Amino acid sequence: MSYPYQITSLEQYHIDYKKSVDDPESFWGDVAGNFLWKKKWDSVLNWNFTEPKIEWFKGGKLNITENCIDRHLATMADKPAFIWEPNNPEERVRTVTYARLHKRVCQFAQVLKNNGVKKGDRVCIYMGMVPELAYAVLGCARIGAVHSVIFGGFSAQSIADRLDDAGAEFIVTCDGAYRGEKVIPLKNVIDDALIGNKTIKKVIVYTRTRTPVSMIKGRDVWWEDEMEYAEGQIEKDGVVSFPAEEMNAEDPLFILYTSGSTGKPKGVVHTVAGYMIWTAYTFVNVFQYKPGQVHFCTADIGWITGHSYIVYGPLAAGATSLIFEGIPTWPDAGRFWDVVDKHQVNILYTAPTAIRSLMGFGLDPLKGKDLSSLKILGTVGEPINEEAWHWYNEHIGKKKCPIVDTWWQTETAGVLISNLAGITPAKASWATLPMPGVQPILVDENGNEVTEKDEHGLLKGNLCIKAPWPGILRTTYGDHERCRTNYFASYPNLYFTGDGALKNEEGFYRITGRVDDVLNVSGHRIGTAEVENAINMHAGVVESAVVGYPHDIKGQGIYAFVIYNGHHGDENMRRKDILQTVTRVIGAIAKPDKIQFVTGLPKTRSGKIMRRILRKIAEGETENLGDISTLLEPGVVEEIKNGKV
Ligand code: WTA
Questions:
Q1: I need a labelling partner for 24 at 20 to 30 A (CA). Which of 225, 324, 379, 590 fits?
Q2: How many Å lie between the centroid of ligand 1 and the Cα of residue 464?
């Protein structure tokens, strides 16, 4: 057995699951005993879902970076923590050993300190996928600063909103980032975000692309200069050290913004101990990680998947984690397979949208690629359709790699429902069984548990969770009430996920998708209200309504119905203008795939937009639109149907 808390048989899964539910305190207390604490906790769990108030390992003191790095130095100093594969395959690979990672994180923690960053301060990180991004994240954790990583695809306006919401005073960024053939000028975007900003004190800029950048005296500093100076401070007689801040178990570790059903993204807050334990526990169990294996999670560190399964989970388990800077289709559609071959990857964790898009290139890109190192495959981010699941199984896993379909959310920190690779059964398109500590329940609109099976013998309802697991979100930054209303108020004493699910006789869950106004586009969460707000900011737009529709590659596409009374350009030009506005306000990831100009929207007499009807039209349904007699102007439905794009 490699890890004391690793489940190694189906039987043990059932035993552990039962224990985690019957006696969560002793179960999680045992798991937590495998980590490094500066002071042991007083109580394992205090909670109620009404406020909500959730505290794990209260009274315990620790630092997550000592668990992710220092703890491994005695036995694994020369083992790779990270392998970095650059965007350009011709460029040199970088291997970051645990000893090197320790030094860089200490050095960067010193840089933060030198620049005035203190425990509890919020640091925004906006970088490409370079090892320095991980150093920045861990450097913050080392001194107890709260990091807030923003995905490189978000616009200046989105960054400005997040900086403001988090009250951030520090930024770490790059001059630019490589994405295939493109160079994204990250520092320029930050400069735009900072026009008029009065709270940011320092911007630390790492040089990646040597893109020309403006550097404001007194505010902007170069990463390289700062690191060089710090090196002399942390290293004495060849010994590297920077004291890890003693953190309370429930101190915040990071904020990560995510979309909900309202217009404004919310800052999900995770805390030190629970997050650490949940990511390590799920990493080791879901992927059945064995020391020495190479784990390749293709997500960006700007999303929760990258936080939990590129950085914290793998490092807490002393694993080797691959950081890939590039994109799956450059220089060609065989890039993932090249990376697997070159680095002898054992575990590949990616999104269904990537699988579907690579499927579209046929089998040629696989020719000559040695995928025999692969042992386990995983998917995350959206429901995986059976066709993609079988392609992944046959052509990538060669039918010998278990596939884990991992269902979870930004709010859950790590996987909640998934098979455990090779241990519990897999079923195509089913996330299957809950992790120990996770108690799902399916409820109807009124919050009553669903007990009636449908004609296929399945239970169907809204997916909720009955009790806290260590990784559950604690609050939404600066607005606890919002956390309560969003997640804990729909159904009393339950955490509501926003997803719908089916449950079969074996107790397996199948996630059917969001039941709220949140879209899942290429595995990215986007709120329809957020996109509508952005479209409505465009001059000439009177009103808009956004819905999702099935998209072969992206899973869901964005369909916008727009009332426009401006007179600039033809329809095509107007569409392009609107896309430009959305790109400015949110970022290119939120651009609608389709825009239909309409003269009215289907509304009830009380003025509520009937999205159900729009969704059906966007899906191509023309007949069964349901009852439209309650509409203010039933006539618009016919017009919208006829004008479908
Ligand atoms: C969806 C990503 C089906 C779901 C980790 C959830 C999934 C949202 C799966 C969270 C899966 C994630 N099967 N749906 N295996 N994994 N989802 O916060 O709708 O970016 O609520 O977290 O993605 O997206 P988020």
A1: 379
A2: 14
